[in-house]
Amino acid sequence: MKLKFTKMHGLGNDFVVIDCISQNISLSGAQFRFLADRHFGIGCDQILLVENPTRSDADFRYRIFNADGGEVEQCGNGARCFVRFVHDKGLTGKSEIRVETASGIIEPRLEADGQVTVNMGAPRFEPMEIPFLAEKRALTYPLPVGDKIIDISAVSMGNPHAVQVVDHIDYAPVAEQGTLIENHPAFPARVNAGFMQVVDRTHIKLRVFERGSGETLACGTGACAAAVAGITRGLLDAQVQVSTRGGELAIRWEGEGQPVWMTGPAVTVFEGEINL
Ligand SMILES: N[C@H](CCC[C@H](N)C(=O)O)C(=O)O
């Protein structure tokens, strides 16, 4: 089977984007892992599928598969690439679209300056909604990791995030703790592990060890979750610049029950075909 794809990235968080509207395909977990493989396949952090919606109030359906082949609920950097893709491919004439995801509707918008703004929906904090095994909701939670007890915020942006504050981002224990947190038994669906340095009330530095993909150069939902965690902890104002290893995201959140707004770039790198 010959498969057309587009290679894209959002701040170096890279994607294989597949038009499943013009191509009638169905891929297995093993095929997703092959496409994501940086030696034997194309190479990416996630594969994004563009499909027709199943809901009448959406323009498209957006499905996300991590490099390990698992399907997940949300991908923020991918959402920006999604709207750039459907617009550039002529699949829509709209610059703002409603996109159906496994965790609800998101609304990405192409800006005149080439950036993309996305309404990522409201964060969720109830342990059951994350999911996270805890007696009751708390501002932070002590989490045993290796021989340490770390202090995390647990937030869902549709997908689960465990965010900790670190003193200096370059020395954050991503290598030692990333996979231990990702696979922690307190997170039944596993979790994305965020490491946040607070520079000042309007600026953080962030690294994320992503569920199913390892450390990425940037994580959009991770940036949203970290900003929300910092705001709820009283460390940040509503507008936050998030510096990732791949570049800068702007996040805005006005508080509980309100949506998180994310603005950043979306880049098309090349078009390709691959035999599966
Ligand atoms: N690894 C994430 C999915 C991709 C999220 C990330 N690439 C983003 O930009 O939000 C998860 O398993 O929930």
UniProtKB/TrEMBL annotation:
Residues annotated as binding substrate: N13, Q46, N66, G76, N77, N159, N192, E210, R211, G220, T221
InterPro entries: DAP_epimerase_AS, DAP_epimerase_DapF
Gene Ontology MF term list: diaminopimelate epimerase activity
Pathway recorded for this protein: Amino-acid biosynthesis; L-lysine biosynthesis via DAP pathway; DL-2,6-diaminopimelate from LL-2,6-diaminopimelate: step 1/1
This protein's UniProt keywords: Amino-acid biosynthesis, Cytoplasm, Isomerase, Lysine biosynthesis
Site (Could be important to modulate the pK values of the two catalytic cysteine residues): H161, E210
Residue stretches spanning the membrane: none
Key word Transferase present: no
Pfam families, alphabetized: DAP_epimerase
Protein's cellular compartments: Cytoplasm
Taxonomic superkingdom: Bacteria
Entry's EC annotation: 5.1.1.7
Reported function: Catalyzes the stereoinversion of LL-2,6-diaminopimelate (L,L-DAP) to meso-diaminopimelate (meso-DAP), a precursor of L-lysine and an essential component of the bacterial peptidoglycan.
Self-association state and partner proteins as the record states: Homodimer.
Descriptive protein name: Diaminopimelate epimerase
Species of provenance: Sulfurimicrobium lacus
